[in-house]
Write a structure and sequence with these properties.
The complex is a heterodimer. Chain A folds into 3 domains: 120 residues, Acyl-CoA dehydrogenase/oxidase, N-terminal domain (Butyryl-Coa Dehydrogenase, subunit A, domain 1), CATH 1.10.540.10; 99 residues, Beta Barrel (Butyryl-CoA Dehydrogenase, subunit A, domain 2), CATH 2.40.110.10; 146 residues, Butyryl-CoA Dehydrogenase, subunit A, domain 3 (Up-down Bundle). Helices cover 50% and strands 13% of the residues of chain A. Chain A is built from 10 helices and 9 strands. In chain A, the strands form 3 sheets. In chain A, strands 2-3-7-6 form a 4-stranded antiparallel sheet, with helices on one face. In chain A, a hairpin with a 2-residue loop joins strand 8 and strand 9. The longest helix of chain A has 35 residues. Chain A is globular and about 80 Å long. Chain A starts with 23 loop residues before the first helix and ends in a 6-residue tail after the last helix. Chain B is built from 6 helices and 13 strands. Chain B has one domain: HUPs (Rossmann fold, 3-Layer(aba) Sandwich). Chain B is 27% helix and 28% strand. In chain B, helix 2 packs across helix 5 and helix 3 runs parallel beside helix 4. The chains are: A alpha+beta, B alpha/beta. Chains A and B meet through helix 1 of A and helix 2 and helix 5 of B.
Chain lengths: 396, 246
């Protein structure tokens, strides 16, 4: 019988020599995070995922390896790396588990990035080094119970109260919220303009109950954010942005990372399927010797290769500051869907073993159902591309 | 404390081994290279720990062409202060050891560390040869090392047990599993490594008394033979005639 995934025998796949397009920094970062995942994530992830528990201790490890805000400047707790390095780090984390990648995506792209980009110097210095070092955990509050794909309809609001604002409302599906020290929350002011507010754990009226019963991202903690007359100092409002472009620019960052991350999950499924099909014999020959298995494997590596090239090109444009939200949508949508399809095909190659946690396939597959939906659903990203090419808004 | 760590580039453990040029050279095509794990995980990390405890510097040294620079940068990313590459094709253990010794001769290193062997040639020769060339004591297969001033207490693997040795600086040691724990470079280290010096040094003239005349691969592993439990005679015959263990 083929050996299970308990021993992580993952090997990267690079059919088109995409490595040749990467710098020494990128390759060093890739190998370092891959080693870290093999050492810290692979041995425990099936167990945590099975028990629907978040491996909190990994926050510290993610900070130490430099996975939080790697492309932010060093003086603010970032790594001073480029966007491709950030993407590769996300790829390798998601190769381990989408939930672990989510921990890092949220901290870096949705919490550190808006504070860096839109925050005052005081806010940057107060929060960013602690977020970068993992001393603080952050979360991002945009989605509401009744406003998911339509964030502009949000009802969470702030009202003026001298040197404070009074925050009311609720946010839903918030990664890391029950354990977060700070939340970057998007709320409408009295003129209906969306503002970013930094809410700290312990502020009276602020709670973050956990959401239970997820069949996906089980090793990542998800919750709500509830605000009942929370008095927040005005100095906690992000001064640098007004309107929906604030949260959307954060989402562009995170979606960019997901476009890379999904390749990691896909590669892990393909790698496991390839190995299993070479080791497992039926009718006197390896599964890999049958045409239908080869069709699956050949299509998988083709799709992975296309996704790698899409992500790489998106990365080079992001490095020049030229990646548009539409281009990011296309890559996120394509690559996540690609990964989910590969997980399903890989599950079939593993036969019955594919449904067990001896192999990472079902865990990736279930995780990817979330990834397909969060940070802009599969359908919404399609409509973004549709609007981009036709000039007609089909959202409403 | 001034520490010199010798690092080597080796094929990844999963690399397919093949030869070229009439079986006289290793075929590097398509092979992924890594830093020799005994150098990286044990020798380099223990050197960094010694520096962190007592101050000083850690220099890594490699004999090789610019193709080795990626491996050297990893060593800098893990934490070495500077690096030296002796710009020559590492033809043999003797050649490598002589080059390193020539470089180290006037640098007054307190400890020279190597891995116990490289995972490709498994020669375990370079450390001993460096020590000989520099007229230093050599402690091989070290699994534990404690420094007290300039005196080191070193536990080393020996057949069927362990030996504890005491030695004063300067000395050379080769590192075995257990001497330290692998350190994975972080993003900060990777970025800092670009700002650390990598000095490329011309090789010295050496007449190498040995050369490789050919390589062969080991025989392919035979598949498992299943013997019917009723047929003990056949089992005994196979153990006697084929496996030659009884």
């Amino acid at each position: 019988m083929a050996k299970g995934a308990k021993e992580d025998r993952f090997k990267g796949h690079d059919y088109y020599n995409v490595d040749g397009l990467l710098s020494e920094d990128h390759l060093l970062a890739r190998d370092a995070v891959r080693d870290w995942v093999k050492k810290e994530v692979s041995p425990i992830i099936e167990d945590y995922s099975n028990r629907a528990e978040c491996p909190h201790h990994l926050f510290k490890g993610l900070a130490e390896i430099g996975a939080f805000g790697p492309s932010l400047p060093e003086q603010y707790g970032g790594g001073g790396m480029d966007e491709i390095a950030y993407g590769i780090i996300m790829q390798e984390l998601e190769r381990g588990d989408s939930g672990i990648r989510s921990m890092a995506s949220v901290q870096g792209s949705l919490v550190m990035y808006p504070i860096y980009k839109f925050g005052s110097e005081e806010q940057r210095l107060k929060y960013l080094p602690k977020l970068g070092s993992g001393e603080f955990i952050g979360c991002f509050g945009l989605t509401e119970p009744d406003h998911g794909s339509n964030p502009s309809g949000m009802v969470t609001n702030i009202k003026d109260d001298g040197d404070h604002v009074i925050l009311n409302g609720a946010k839903m599906w918030i990664t890391n919220s029950p354990v977060a020290d700070v939340a970057v929350v998007w709320a409408k002011d009295e003129s209906g303009i969306i503002r970013g507010v930094i809410v700290e754990k312990g502020m009276p009226g602020f709670s973050a109950p956990e959401i239970h019963g997820k069949w996906s991202l089980r090793a990542s903690i998800t919750g709500e954010l509830v605000f009942e007359d929370v008095r927040v100092p005005k100095s906690n409002i992000l001064p640098g942005v007004q309107g929906l472009k604030g949260p959307l620019s954060c989402l562009s960052k995170a979606r960019y990372g997901i476009a890379w991350g999904a390749i990691g999950a896909a590669m892990d499924c393909y790698d496991s399927a390839l190995r299993y099909s070479l080791e497992r014999e039926q009718f006197g020959k390896p599964l890999a010797g049958f045409q239908l298995t080869q069709k699956k494997l050949a299509e998988m590596i083709t799709e992975i290769t296309k996704a790698q090239l899409l992500a790489w090109r998106l990365g080079t444009m992001a490095n020049e500051g030229k990646a548009t939200p539409g281009q990011i949508s296309m890559a996120k949508r394509n690559n996540v869907h690609m990964a989910l399809e590969i997980a399903r095909e890989a599950r079939q190659i593993h036969g019955g073993m594919g449904i067990t946690n001896e192999y990472p396939i079902m865990r990736h597959m279930m995780n990817l159902e979330t990834v397909l939906t969060y940070e802009g659903t599969h359908d919404i990203h399609l409509l973004i591309t549709g609007m981009d090419v036709t000039g007609i808004n089909a959202f409403k | 404390m001034k520490l010199l760590v010798c690092i080597s580039k080796t094929p990844d453990t999963t690399a397919k081994i093949a030869f070229t040029n009439g079986d006289t050279e290793f075929n590097e095509e398509g092979v992924q290279f890594i830093m020799n794990p005994y150098d990286e995980w044990y020798a380099l990390v223990r050197a960094l720990e010694l520096k962190e405890a007592a101050g000083g510097s850690v220099t890594i040294i490699n004999v090789g062409t610019s193709a080795n620079d990626a491996v050297i940068r990893k060593g800098l990313a893990i934490g070495a202060d500077d690096a030296v590459r002796i710009d020559a094709d590492p033809k043999s253990s003797y050649f490598v050891a002589k080059q390193i010794a020539a470089y180290a001769a006037d640098k007054e290193f307190d400890v020279v560390l190597t891995g116990k062997e490289t995972i490709d040639f498994n020669g375990s020769e370079v450390g001993g040869m460096i020590a000989e060339a520099l007229d230093m004591p050599f402690i091989s297969y070290a699994t534990h090392l404690e420094m007290d001033g300039n005196v080191a207490k070193i536990t080393r693997d020996i057949e069927g047990g362990a030996e504890v040795a005491e030695v004063s600086t300067p000395f050379t040691l080769s590192a075995s599993k257990g001497l330290a724990e692998q350190r994975i470079p972080n993003m900060k280290g990777i970025m800092m490594s670009k700002r650390k010096p990598l000095n490329v040094v011309a090789p010295v003239e050496i007449s190498d008394p040995s050369k490789v005349v050919g390589y062969t691969l080991p025989d392919a592993k035979e598949s498992v033979k299943l013997v019917d439990p009723e047929n003990m005679t056949e089992l005994v015959r196979l153990l006697h005639e084929e496996a030659k263990v009884i």
